UniProtKB/TrEMBL annotation:
<dbReference type="InterPro" id="IPR013780">
    <property type="entry name" value="Glyco_hydro_b"/>
</dbReference>
<dbReference type="InterPro" id="IPR054169">
    <property type="entry name" value="GlgB_N"/>
</dbReference>
<dbReference type="InterPro" id="IPR017853">
    <property type="entry name" value="GH"/>
</dbReference>
<keyword id="KW-0321">Glycogen metabolism</keyword>
<keyword id="KW-0808">Transferase</keyword>
<dbReference type="GO" id="GO:0004553">
    <property type="term" value="F:hydrolase activity, hydrolyzing O-glycosyl compounds"/>
</dbReference>
<keyword id="KW-0119">Carbohydrate metabolism</keyword>
<dbReference type="GO" id="GO:0005978">
    <property type="term" value="P:glycogen biosynthetic process"/>
</dbReference>
<dbReference type="GO" id="GO:0043169">
    <property type="term" value="F:cation binding"/>
</dbReference>
<dbReference type="InterPro" id="IPR013783">
    <property type="entry name" value="Ig-like_fold"/>
</dbReference>
<dbReference type="InterPro" id="IPR006407">
    <property type="entry name" value="GlgB"/>
</dbReference>
<keyword id="KW-0320">Glycogen biosynthesis</keyword>
<feature type="active site" description="Nucleophile">
    <location>
        <position position="404"/>
    </location>
</feature>
<dbReference type="InterPro" id="IPR004193">
    <property type="entry name" value="Glyco_hydro_13_N"/>
</dbReference>
<dbReference type="GO" id="GO:0005829">
    <property type="term" value="C:cytosol"/>
</dbReference>
<dbReference type="InterPro" id="IPR014756">
    <property type="entry name" value="Ig_E-set"/>
</dbReference>
<dbReference type="InterPro" id="IPR006047">
    <property type="entry name" value="GH13_cat_dom"/>
</dbReference>
Length: 721
C-alpha cells in the first residue's frame, strides 16, 4: 500500500513517529519491497550484506526517497549510491531488526533491570551481520526521537528511532560507525515542541567542556591486575579494617598549569605513590562524572555514566583504579543521586515533560543549589540511579561510593519553609520514596559486589543509616556501610578553635561524641566542605599564634586518629595548607620546604602507619568494647585519655593535653602494670614540636603511671607486657 503524501512528508521531515513502518525491507504478496531515504543520490542499487545484488531502486521524490522491488526475504541491505561521478555505500539502518528483546521490555517495565548500562545508551555491537552502534534512550512522552551526530551532519531527518511503546524506549542500530563519534538526541515533545538537543543520560563518554555532546565508546576493557586487592576486601568486614581516606579533587591536587588538568595516567604516576607513601588506605575522589561547571566540583553532574573528559578518555580512569589497587590503595568516588542541574542539554524535561524530576517545584526544585530533585517515586528513575551505582562497581572496579547530600533526600522539608513543601501520605516530612531508593541501591551493590561499600553523608540523626536494610528490618534502616560523623567534625573543630584558657568550660565538646560514637558505623570527616567558602584552612581554624596553631593541629590529628571511627582528610590538610582550598589552583606544595609544614606531613604519615598496623586502633572502630575512658573529667587541665583495644591485640592509650602547659608529673590511670612504649608524640621535634616527652616509654604500677604531657600535644602509648 502506498503511504499518503502526508506520511511521506513527515518521513522526509524527520517527524514521522514510526519510520520503521515505511523504511527498510517489507515483505508482501508480490515479494519484498524496499524504501530508503538516500540524500544526494541519483541512483541506488540494493545489495545484501554478503554481496548479492537484490535490485535497483527508483528515486520517487527529489528529496531523496527511493523505492523498488528487491529479491529475497526481509534482510539487512546496503545501497550502492551514485550521483554523477561520485559513488558511495550506505548500509540501511531501517533494514535491521530491533536489538532489545521481550525480556528487556519486561525488566525495564518492572524496574528490575540491573544491566541497563548494557542496553540503554550507545553500544558498539555486531548485529545481524553488521558492525555499528546501537542507540537506546528512554523518552516515553516524545512524539519522535532521532539520533544526530557527526556521522549524519547533525540532521534529525536521517535517523529517527524505533519506539518500543510498552516501555517508552526509543532505539536504532546504525551500522558502519564506531567509537569516538559525537552524538545527541533530537527530541520532539508530545505537544510538537522541538527540545534543545539532549546528551545521552547513559553515555559512557562525553566531550570536553564547554562542548556537551556524548561520545560513542567501547566499554572499558583492559587486563585488570587487581584480583588480589578485590579478593582481600571481599573476604573481610570493612568495619574491622583500617580505613584512612585521602579525599581528593582530581582537578586541583596538582595542575600542569593554571588552565589545564593532568590526565588520569599522569595523576596515577604522581598521586598513587604519594598516597601509598603517606599510608592512606583509600583515595576518595570528589565526583568524577561529567559536569559542565568547574566550580561545582562535580556535584552538579550531567553525565552520571561518563568519567569527565577533563582528565582524558574513560579508560584512563580504569587504569588509575587498577594502578591504585595494585599498590594496595582502594578508590572511592563521590556519587550524587540527590539532584541534577538545569542545563538544557541534560535531564531537565528530557522528553518535554518532567521525566526525571517532579513537575511540582515543592517536590522537585532544590532551593540550596538551584537544581532539580530526582523523582524517586518513578521506577525508571530509581532504575537509572541504581544501575549507575552498579556500573561504577562493575566497569571501573571502584571500591565504594560516598553518597552526597543524603539528608536532603530524606526530608521533604529540607531547606524549605512552611508552605514550600508537601507532606507525605501520612502527613509527615519523611521522603519515603527516597528511603526506598537508597535501600534498593544498597541492597543491589552489596548483593552483587562483595567488598564494595557505601558511605552516607548524612547530617541529621536519622535512625539506622548504617544498619542493614533487610526486608524485615525497620522501615528507616538505609543499608549503608558507613555514615559520616558530622557531629564529631563540628564539635571538635569548635573546641580546637577556642583559646586554651576557655577549653575547660567546653570539655563536653570532646567527650559528648562518645555517647553516640557506636550508634552508627562512622567515618570521621575533615572534608573539603570545611576548607572552602570563607571557612579557611584547618590550620587557620586552630587557636593561638603560629606555633600554637601547628601544635593544635598536630594534637587534633592525633586525637582523631586515636578516636573510634574511620578517618577522612581532605588533600592539603596533611601538610597544613594555609590558604583556603580553591578548585582553580593547585595545592601549595612549596609549603613542604618549611619545616613546620613538613613536620605535619610526617605526623600524618606516621599516624597512618601506626593506625593501620595496630588492630587496637581500628579493629573495633564501630564497637563499644574497643573503647574505654581513662581520663574523662579533667576539664581544668583539658586532658583527655582513653584506651583503644581489640581481641588479641596490645592495648593502646591515647592522651591529649589541650593546653600550652606542660604537665610533667601527670597521673595517668592504665589498666595493665608494666611498660608502655611511647609510639607517637605530636610534640616530637621531627614533627615541629618542642621535643618534650617520656624518653620513649612509661612504667605503670598500681594501675597508673606518672607521665609527662607535652604542651598542646597527643601521645599514643602501646602496652608492651
Amino acid at each position: 500500500m502506498k503511504p499518503p503524501a502526508s506520511a511521506i512528508d513527515a518521513l522526509l521531515d524527520g517527524t514521522h513517529a514510526d519510520p520503521f513502518s515505511l523504511l527498510g525491507i517489507h515483505e508482501g504478496p508480490e515479494g519484498a519491497f524496499a524504501r530508503a531515504v538516500l540524500p544526494g543520490a541519483e541512483e541506488a542499487v540494493a545489495w545484501s550484506l554478503s554481496g548479492k545484488r537484490l535490485g535497483k531502486l527508483t528515486r520517487v521524490d527529489g528529496r531523496g526517497l527511493f523505492e523498488g522491488k528487491v529479491k529475497g526475504p526481509r534482510q539487512p541491505v546496503r545501497y550502492a549510491c551514485t550521483a554523477g561521478t561520485h559513488e558511495w555505500l550506505v548500509t540501511d539502518p531501517y533494514s535491521f531488526g530491533p536489538v532489545l528483546g521481550p525480556l528487556d521490555d519486561f525488566l525495564i517495565a518492572e524496574g528490575t533491570h540491573h544491566r541497563l548500562f548494557d542496553k540503554l545508551g550507545a553500544h558498539l555491537i555486531d548485529h545481524e551481520g553488521a558492525s555499528g552502534v546501537h542507540f537506546a534512550v528512554w523518552a516515553p512522552n516524545a512524539q519522535v526521537v532521532s539520533v544526530v551526530g557527526d556521522f549524519n551532519d547533525w540532521d534529525q531527518r536521517r535517523h529517527p528511532m524505533r519506539r518500543r511503546a510498552d516501555i517508552g524506549v526509543w532505539e536504532i542500530f546504525i551500522p558502519d560507525i564506531g567509537e569516538h563519534r559525537a552524538y545527541k538526541y533530537h527530541v520532539i515533545g508530545a505537544d510538537g515542541t522541538v527540545l534543545p538537543l539532549k546528551a545521552d543520560p547513559f553515555a559512557q563518554a562525553a566531550e570536553f567542556r564547554p562542548s556537551t555532546a556524548s561520545i560513542t565508546a567501547h566499554p572499558v576493557k583492559m587486563d585488570w591486575g587487581d584480583a588480589d586487592h578485590r579478593a582481600h576486601w571481599a573476604s573481610v568486614d570493612a568495619r574491622r579494617q583500617p580505613m584512612s581516606i585521602y579525599e581528593v579533587h582530581p582537578g586541583s591536587w596538582q595542575k600542569p598549569h593554571d588552565e589545564g588538568f593532568y590526565t588520569w595516567d599522569e595523576l596515577a604516576d604522581r598521586l598513587i605513590p604519594y598516597v601509598a607513601e603517606m599510608g592512606f588506605t583509600h583515595i576518595e575522589f570528589l565526583p568524577v562524572s561529567e559536569h559542565p561547571y568547574d566550580p561545582s566540583w562535580g556535584y552538579q553532574t550531567t553525565g552520571l555514566y561518563a568519567p569527565s573528559a577533563r582528565f582524558g578518555p574513560p579508560e584512563g580512569f580504569a587504569r588509575f583504579v587498577d594502578g591504585a589497587h595494585r599498590a594496595g590503595v582502594s578508590v572511592l568516588i563521590d556519587w550524587v543521586p540527590a539532584h541534577f542541574p538545569t542545563d538544557e542539554h541534560g535531564l531537565v524535561r528530557f522528553d518535554g515533560t518532567a521525566l526525571y524530576e517532579h513537575e511540582d517545584p515543592r517536590l522537585g526544585f532544590h532551593p540550596d543549589w538551584n537544581t532539580l530533585i530526582y523523582n524517586f517515586g518513578r521506577r525508571e528513575v530509581v532504575s537509572f540511579l541504581v544501575n549507575n551505582a552498579l556500573f561504577w562497581a562493575e566497569r571501573y572496579h571502584v571500591d565504594g561510593l560516598r553518597v552526597d547530600a543524603v539528608a536532603s533526600m530524606l526530608y521533604r522539608d529540607y531547606s524549605r519553609k512552611a508552605g514550600e513543601w508537601i507532606p507525605n501520605a501520612e502527613g509527615g516530612r519523611e521522603n519515603w520514596e527516597a528511603v526506598e531508593f537508597l535501600k534498593a541501591m544498597n541492597r543491589a551493590v552489596y548483593a552483587s559486589h562483595a567488598g564494595f561499600l557505601t558511605i552516607a553523608e548524612e547530617s541529621t540523626s536519622w535512625p539506622g543509616v548504617s544498619k542493614p536494610a533487610f526486608d524485615e528490618a525497620p522501615r528507616e534502616h538505609l543499608g549503608f556501610g558507613f555514615k559520616w560523623n558530622m557531629g564529631f567534625m563540628h564539635d571538635t573543630l569548635q573546641y580546637m578553635s577556642r583559646d586554651p584558657i576557655h577549653r575547660q568550660y567546653h570539655h563536653n565538646e570532646i567527650t559528648f561524641g562518645l555517647t553516640y560514637a557506636f550508634s552508627e558505623n562512622f567515618v570521621l570527616p575533615l572534608s573539603h566542605d570545611e576548607v572552602v567558602h570563607g571557612k579557611g584552612s584547618l590550620l587557620n581554624k586552630m587557636s593561638g599564634d603560629d606555633w600554637q596553631k601547628f601544635a593544635n593541629l598536630r594534637a587534633y590529628y592525633g586525637l582523631m586518629w586515636g578516636y573510634p571511627g574511620k578517618k577522612l582528610l581532605f588533600m592539603g590538610q596533611e601538610f597544613a595548607q594555609r590558604r583556603e582550598w580553591s578548585e582553580a589552583r593547585s595545592l601549595d606544595w612549596d609549603l613542604l620546604n618549611a619545616p613546620a609544614h613538613e613536620g605535619v606531613r610526617r605526623w600524618v604519615r606516621d599516624l597512618n602507619r601506626v593506625y593501620t598496623t595496630r588492630p587496637a586502633l581500628h579493629a573495633c572502630d564501630c564497637e563499644p568494647d574497643g573503647f574505654e575512658w581513662l581520663v574523662v573529667d579533667d576539664a581544668q587541665a583539658s586532658v583527655f585519655a582513653w584506651l583503644r583495644k581489640a581481641p588479641d591485640a596490645r592495648p593502646i592509650a591515647v592522651i591529649c593535653n589541650m593546653t600550652p602547659q606542660v604537665h610533667d608529673h601527670y597521673r595517668l590511670p592504665l589498666p595493665h602494670d608494666g611498660e608502655w612504649r611511647e609510639v607517637l608524640n605530636s610534640d616530637a621535634q621531627d614533627y615541629g614540636g618542642s621535643g618534650i616527652g617520656n624518653l620513649g616509654q612509661v612504667t605503670a604500677e598500681g594501675g597508673a603511671a606518672f607521665v609527662v604531657l607535652p604542651p598542646l600535644a597527643t601521645l599514643i602509648l602501646e602496652f608492651q607486657g
